[in-house]
Structures are given as C-alpha cells and as structure tokens.
Amino acid sequence: MALPTTEIRTREQVFVGGVWRDSAGGTPVEVRDPATLRPVGTAVLASAEDVDVAVDSAVATFESGTWRGRPAAERAAVLRRAADHLEGLGDLAVDLLTHELGCVRGFAAAAHVPNPIRHLRYYADLIEAGPAEQIREDGTWRSLVVREPVGVVGAITPWNGPLSSPVLKVAPALAAGCSVVLKPPPETPLTALLLADAMQVAGLPEGALSVLPATREVGEHLVRHPGVDKIAFTGSTAAGKRILGLCADRVARVTLELGGKSAAVVLDDADPDTVLDALLPMAMTVNGQLCIAQSRLLVPRHREAEFTDALWARLQALPVGDPFDPATRIGPLVSAAQRDRVRDYLDLAREEGARVLGGDVPDLPGWFVSPALLAGASNSMRAVREEIFGPVMALVAYDDVDSAVALANDSPYGLSGSVWSADSDRALAVASRIRTGMVSVNGAPQAFGTPFGGMKQSGLGREMGPEGLAAYQELKSIALGRAS
C-alpha cells in the first residue's frame, strides 16, 4: 500500500497557537510502520518551551474572548468545517492512521476516522442547540444559572486512538469556548496533526488550539503549568494517578479515562458460537490494544472445557499479518516495547500456573504477537488482573451467578463489560450488578451520545454525550432579585 502524500506525513514544525512554527528545542522523530518497520514520515516532538508558548497563547486568547466570546453558532460552524475537511481527506487519513498504528485498515475506515468526524458534528449541534443560561426561581427570588467554559484545557491522549481520543477532548472543549493545548503521543503524531490542519482550515482563531506531540516528561510539564485550568487525560491508570496528584496541588479540574480489564460474563444458557462471533471483535479490536477490550471471559465451570476449546479454535483461526490485507484480523502491536510487554505477561502467566495457548511471534518483519489464550486461569493471577494491552484473553471458570458477578467486580478497574445469555432479561439483571461504567447485553453496541468512562481505577468523569460537553463547563449562579 502506497504511503499518503508527503504533506501530511512530513512535519518539520510544531503547531503552536494555531500557527506552524519552528520548535524551541524540540526533537525530530521518525515514525515507522509497526507492520513493516519502514519509515512512514517525520514529526517534531515539542519541548517544554513550546508548551509554555502554547499555554501563554491559549491564556491570552481565552482572556481576550477571541474564541469563547463568539456566539455558539459560530463556534459550531468552525467544528463542522473541520469535520468536512477531515472527511474530505478520505483514504489519505485512513491509510496514514493504519501505517502509524498498525490496526486493521477496515477498522480504521469504519471507526477510527469516521467516528471523530461524527463527534465534531455532534458537539457542533449540541452547543448550538443547548441553552447556555437558565432562569431558576423559588417563588421569592430569581437567579440566572450560566454555563461558562472552564478555561485553558491541557489534553493528553494515547496512541491507540490517534484521532478519536484527541477529538473526544478537543471537540467539546472548543464547543464550550475553551482554549486547548493538545499533547498527542510520540508513537502516532502524524494522525493527530491532521486535526491541527482541519482546525486551521476551518478558521479557528489563533491561540485557541495547539497540537504538540511530545514525550511524557513534556506532558507532565503541561499538567503542572499554572496557566492550565483543566487536564483531560486518556491513558494508563498509573499515569492517571500521577496526574491526579499533580492537579490536586492547585485544584485543577481533571477528567481521567484510564485502564480496564473488562469481564465478559457468559451465563449457563449461552451458545458458544453466538457469544464468540460477537465477543472476539470486542476483545481483539486494535489488536487487543484497547482499554475496553473484553479480555476476561467468565464461564460456568461445567462448560469450561467447551468454551476453552471453542475460543482457542477461534483465536487460532484469526489471520495475523498485513493490516492492509482485507483478510487480516490481527495486525502488529504499536512498538517493540509493547510486543515485549505482552510477551512478558505471557511468561508471567505460565509462572502463575495458567496454560498459555498461542502468543507466538510470527515470522513477520513487524511487532507481531499471535493471539493468546490463558486457559485454566484464576482471577487472582496478575496476568488476569492487570491490563496487558495485546491480543490476549483469559478464561476463568465460576460456580454460580453470584460468584460470576463477584469475579467480574473483583478488579481494581471498572470500565466496560458484557453479559451473555439466551434470555436478555436475565442478562440485563446480571449486567445491573456489575460495577462498571459501561456494560453490553449480548454484545449490543452503545448508542451514540451515551457517556463513556469508568468506575474505580478506570477513571474520573465522562466523555461523549452531553456529559462530555459539561466536563468543559463551569456553572455560575447570578442572583437577579425578586421573582416577578
């Protein structure tokens, strides 16, 4: 597959305050395709000095009202024009994302690119339709409740959602009238910079957005910056805890979308083929590098052997290889470090007593690991409790429904999950007992516009839906006097 045009894969400057400029001490980085290890393009990883300039620009723009002072309809129009620009890129954006991340191209075309476009338009519609002010009366007194932008937002996003994660923060923040400094990761800088192009073309005023791919250290500098009013972060729970502590020092607002180790609870009347047809995409999307991956399969003990054999047969049949091949279902992991992490967890699982099926390194040039199953696993094993972020599933047996619910909830995480049964009402009753931010009955997808986020150590706050917009707004109450 040919590489996208040079213009979107060769970036020699940083995008600071809506302007492309030379970096103040940034580091050039070569992006390589994780499937072939061939060069994809180049970018510049921003420096702390670049962040300082970006935050200063964001603060000045916010205080002047250049963006937040515009009517909601004008802000909505900018978001829609940005969406139109991204949509107009077509295959260029899909191919670039696939080359950077290594996910199966079909998923990039079906979700990774169109979903962010849809979210831009969704928040344009929402801010235009929703009232920013509301009168409240108690019979005697009258007050005006106003929704205002939270201020300057520092957004930090991961590599497994190169465009979707940035848009889930940038779109509602800009819709609300905030100024944003976005820090994408070093692994997938080029796709994130497409958003910078889109907003510049759309006419976003200078200062309202910076897009600065950078290291974790520079990201921490952004978190610590006194000019940043809110941090919106997606990433590991360990990093989220660090960010939460830093934000607490100055009571900065924070939204955290963190890790997961989601359980798929299979009830005793579920059909294996029906379950696995729908479950495997929920577990193996982005080659298992997804926080909502259904990586723990909980099955009745008397059906453990049946489900083990069925699942292992399915995993063995998943084609591993070129993400651009329509037949491929499992592409490479994003980096050598991620591949080694997955392999280390498989070694740990063996030491802990699990029967590890698969998990081999294919004879391919990139960072591949074949799908793996941890059979005969226990929920107490680290490899079952900790987020692996790779094509690995663990199968754990339970004795009754109460123990299944207890196992599903016996996790520091609470991001996603599913319940499977021939009786949807029975599945719903079990789903209501699972402590997680999202749960699916028989693999049903979430309706667009529902909130996304987790309980426990899977995060704080919500993205998507009206809740995603509210996360970037503050409420102010203005006393007006006596009610008429």
From TrEMBL:
Domain (Aldehyde dehydrogenase): residue spans on this chain: 20-478
UniProt keyword Oxidoreductase, yes or no: yes
Molecular function terms from GO: oxidoreductase activity, acting on the aldehyde or oxo group of donors, NAD or NADP as acceptor
InterPro entries according to UniProt: Ald_DH/histidinol_DH, Ald_DH_C, Ald_DH_CS_GLU, Ald_DH_N, Aldehyde_DH_dom
Keywords: Oxidoreductase
Key word ATP-binding present: no
Active site: E257
PANTHER family: ALDEHYDE DEHYDROGENASE, ALDEHYDE DEHYDROGENASE-RELATED
Family as reported in the entry's similarity comment: Belongs to the aldehyde dehydrogenase family.
Protein's UniProt name: Aldehyde dehydrogenase
Organism: Prauserella cavernicola
